[in-house]
Amino acid sequence: MKTLGIIGGMSPESTVTYYSQINRLVNQAKGGNYSAKLLMVSVEFEQIVQCQKAGNWQQAGEILADAARTLEKMGADGILLATNTMHKVADYISGAVTIPFLHIIDATAQHILDQNISTVGLLGTRFTMQDDFYRNGLSERGISAIVPSEEQQAEIHRIIFEELCVGKLLPKSKQYYLQVIADLQKLGAEGIILGCTEIGLLIEQTDFSLPFFDTAEIHSKTASTFILDGE
């Protein structure tokens, strides 16, 4: 069994989801009392948030690269970044280590293509929806992404940081997300990327007819496959 290094803390809520899902998947595969061999560096989220607000992506990238180097020194065989938005600085991380980096867009795109879907709605933080890194990453893999209106993006972003990241799950926010998804469907979305690892805490597949691509769940499956590779 390989040892996976997780860069977490962005937010702690989603990191808990990763930890639970990866261990559950490994246990389902191995049985008994087996669990995943995991190492973790949990960064200070407020420091990352301030970098985001200031547009200081270089500093954020250096913080996460340092975390990746620490995990490699601790014995990790691969690195996973337990967040969507900070994949904006994925090159800092992959360039800092000699071990594999499990990219969330690679994993998500493959799941979408496996369902013969080429156009998706993208939900996430403002950075994920507005910046090119995520949509371009999907486009390079043959997938077109539709994003909500600017007004909707602002409210989606607010809900993530003011509610989901601190464990608040409000029914009115769930209904707002579902209305945005309905709007994206009207624009041609064949499926919806839950492109923030906290969104899956608020809505789930049974809430809507379009296929949901829960990135935390997909990424966790990729992680468990990596951990069990060669078993």
UniProtKB/TrEMBL annotation:
<dbReference type="InterPro" id="IPR004380">
    <property type="entry name" value="Asp_race"/>
</dbReference>
<dbReference type="GO" id="GO:0047661">
    <property type="term" value="F:amino-acid racemase activity"/>
</dbReference>
<dbReference type="InterPro" id="IPR015942">
    <property type="entry name" value="Asp/Glu/hydantoin_racemase"/>
</dbReference>
<dbReference type="InterPro" id="IPR001920">
    <property type="entry name" value="Asp/Glu_race"/>
</dbReference>
<dbReference type="InterPro" id="IPR033134">
    <property type="entry name" value="Asp/Glu_racemase_AS_2"/>
</dbReference>
<dbReference type="Pfam" id="PF01177">
    <property type="entry name" value="Asp_Glu_race"/>
</dbReference>
<protein>
    <submittedName>
        <fullName>Aspartate racemase</fullName>
    </submittedName>
</protein>
<keyword id="KW-0413">Isomerase</keyword>
<comment type="similarity">
    <text>Belongs to the aspartate/glutamate racemases family.</text>
</comment>
